[in-house]
Amino acid sequence: MEPEPQSTGRRRKPKPTRRYSGVVPLKEPPRRLTPDLPPLVPHGLRPILNPERLLAVMTDTTDTTRGIEVEPSDPAADTAAVFDLLGGLVVAQILRALAALRIADHLADGPLTAEELAEREGSHPQATYRLMRAAASSGLLSYEGRRRFALTGRGRLLRSGVPGSLRSLVLTQTGHAHWQAWAHFPEAVRQGATQTRKALGADIFEYFARPENADEAALFAQAMGDLSGLVTRGAVSAVSTVGVSTVVDVGGSNGDFVLALMEADPQLSGQVLDLPHAVEGARGEAAKRGLSDRFHAVAGDFFAEVPPADLYLLKTILHDWDDTQCAVILRNCRSAVNEGGRVLVVETVIGEIGEPDFATRADMTMLAMTNGMERDLDEFDALFAASGWRRSRTYPVGGGYFGMELLAV
Q1: Would you state the pLDDT for residue 331?
Q2: Which of 171, 184, 251 is nearest to 215 (CA)?
Q3: Residues 255, 298: Cα–Cα separation, whole Å
Q4: Is the same domain home to 360 and 221?
Q5: Which span out of 27-36, 41-50, 373-382 was modeled with the highest average pLDDT?
Q6: Is the model's pLDDT at 383 over the cut of 50?
Q7: 248 by DSSP, 3-state: which?
Q8: Is 234 among the domain residues?
Q9: Is residue 360 assigned to a domain?
Q10: Rounded to an integer, what distance in angstroms lies between the CA atom of residue 302 and that of residue 322?
Q11: Residue whose C-alpha is closest to residue 250's, from 382, 345, 388, 349
Q12: Nearest Cα to 309, choosing from 278, 340, 276?
């Protein structure tokens, strides 16, 4: 039975590789879909200015512009909270420096002094100490005394080449392309469209496709692959492949999702539909896993057509595009799907307004970087209905993401 949803448009070439835990399926979506990731803006940096010094000039609760009383607040606490939020930009660059200097890799075998670590990395000893001290204030390192620091659980996520690593994601989100685009964010809100072309001379995927940006594009691809790993295991364990013979991973990059399904079900044949440079990576990954005999990589344009399948995977694809473009992708799937086939959409889902919500902050990233968006359930349902689908199941898959299974109508 279909769960009851909660209350809560130009053709383009497909883009380069992107994607800007034991699961208990739910009988119906929760009233609130609050993801399990912490907020994107970390807390922990305290402002140097003591907000209490401002208290004397901030305690008057009279709204002089309208001559009415407003609800009393705690000005000192409010000021501290805003300073803390503003400090998020500093924390983001602390994360970047930790990742770029491989601080977590250096500390993987145990605590080091800032001087010992600086000697290994070739960085300035005192500046390295100041960075590590600030990182300890944000819970990324722990201080052991005598200028020695160790990794915390959060800090371990910045190690390279380990399962669950967020190092590449940190370097991408705080790197040149993203920060240049964020500088134009107010104008993106005014215009209702990303300003990446103004910031970078191209949209974000065209930018990554340029040969001179190959290193940055590779880092982005690695970040998206790492992020994919946070949700793939949960999605694979939740979706049923009974009656499914062919699975197509639409915009599937290196094919991690479909290949994981194929490993779980030896009867499945899988395909990845993506750009030529991306599907080459998928072929290599399939060979690495010994699945080449059941796997096919298709270089193509999902805005033009998709191959026939029993199950389509759309993992973090729809949020990159506006409603008109998403409808094209979904209609192409509807036209090609085999009888009785399904679509599995994996995305963040915006919950109740006013509650802490990873999805709303991710939505701001989409506005800054692409012309896509995150959506709530009502918005998803309207999009699905306009494309010939209806949502039949909704369940969390981990990492703040949800699986939404669609049936053809």
Answers
A1: 98
A2: 171
A3: 11
A4: yes
A5: 373-382
A6: yes
A7: strand
A8: yes
A9: yes
A10: 15
A11: 345
A12: 340
Q: What is the mean pLDDT of residues 52-56?
A: 38
Would you state the structure tokens that stand for residue 216, as one six-digit string?
Answer: 């940055």
Given a cut of 60, is residue 16 above it in pLDDT?
Answer: no
Q: Using alpha carbons only, give the angle 176, 360, 226 rounded to the nearest 5 degrees.
A: 55
Residue 80 has pLDDT above 50, yes or no: yes
Asked if the model's pLDDT at residue 70 lies above 70, the reply is no
Domain ranges, residue 110: 87-158
| CA–CA gap between residue 120 and residue 107 (Å, rounded) | 11
What is the CA angle 46-48-49, rounded to 5? 110
Kindly tell me if the per-residue pLDDT of 33 is higher than 50.
no
User: Which helix (H) or strand (E) is 51 found in, with range?
Assistant: none
Q: How confident is the model at residue 218 (pLDDT cuts 50, 70, 90)?
A: confident
* CATH number, residue 145: 1.10.10.10
Reduced to 3 states (helix: H, G, I; strand: E, B; else coil), residue 372 is coil
Same-domain check for residues 271 and 146: no
User: Cβ distance 20 to 372 under 8 Å?
Assistant: yes
Residue whose entry in the numeric block shows the structure tokens 């008057």 = 60
> Do both 152 and 239 map to the same domain?
no
Question: Which residues are marked as active site?
Answer: 319
pTM of the predicted structure, to 2 decimals: 0.77
> What CATH number is attached to the domain comprising 259?
3.40.50.150
How many folded domains does the chain comprise? 2
Tokens of 88: 């998020």
**Most distant CA pair in the chain: distance in Å?**
76
Mean pLDDT of 58-87: 70
Give me 358's structure tokens. Answer: 């990873």
